[in-house]
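From the pipeline queue, job 12 of 40. The input is one protein chain; the requested action is below.

Action: predict structure.
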Amino acid sequence: MRALVTGAAGFVGSHLTDALLARGDIVRGVDCFTPYYEATEKEGNVSSARSHPNFEFVNADLRTSAIAPLLDGVDAVFHQAAQAGVRLSWAGGFADYVGHNVVATQRLLEAVVAARPSARVVYASSSSVYGNQARYPTEEADLPKPYSPYGVTKLAAEHLCGLYAENWNVSTVSLRYFTVFGPRQRPDMSIHRLCEAAIHGTSFPRYGDGSQVREFTYVDDIVRGNLLAAERDVAPGSYCNLAGGGEVTLSQLIDLVGDLAGNPVRVDQQPRQAGDAFRNGGSIKRARELLDWAPEVSLRDGLRAQLEWHRSRA
């Protein structure tokens, strides 16, 4: 396979790039190193791939750069690039989220239609498209109700994938990730901050009372879902949840990380933040049917692996 990975220096994108290269695929990685977190972190993510003979890295911004040349010879596009995070997506940062998540996706799809219409496009969507729901686990047929501007932009990009599939027969598959964790996780994410607090004895800011419920999915399972989505015979415009298989409250997660690290985490109580949904949890019935996918890594085992990564960095 010849693959284009957007956001190749990011958390999931770099893991996906490494997995493609490990199985012998040819990969073109694209990233523009947005300042959401330190560029040195992203450079570290992609450092191994840069030395691989089957890897080409292009520093490009999908909002403005020519995209057609990036698609030359490509069989599959893994669209991982996005402006991530809920809290910065309100008024002050919303334009960046629209640009990176909506405009960039529309430009990419237009380029696929014009330059590489046979390519499969796998889009990294988010459980944030759901917001707070009336029932759990959430199924794909449930009405999306984003609870943050970030979620609105991810849903808009997912809808773009659907309409390009319907109008131009672009072979798109949208994967709704449920809180991905593992080595290289972004510094702003809760498990990253929890692991750092447990290892270094610092405090962890807990927003809200700790009763929020999340479903976490290990990064290797997410990568496997992407590879299956690129290769399975699925209808254009398909979409499905990739969820880790077990829900946990934030308080339980704090205790579990402390237990695994052998060092209880000190909590710094903070007010609840706007845009943070109270609960998420997804049904994977459709992922089983379309992709023959199910999570393989438990929360406990994944946390052990992430803690080891943090210790190796320390």
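Job complete. The longest helix spans residues 94-115.
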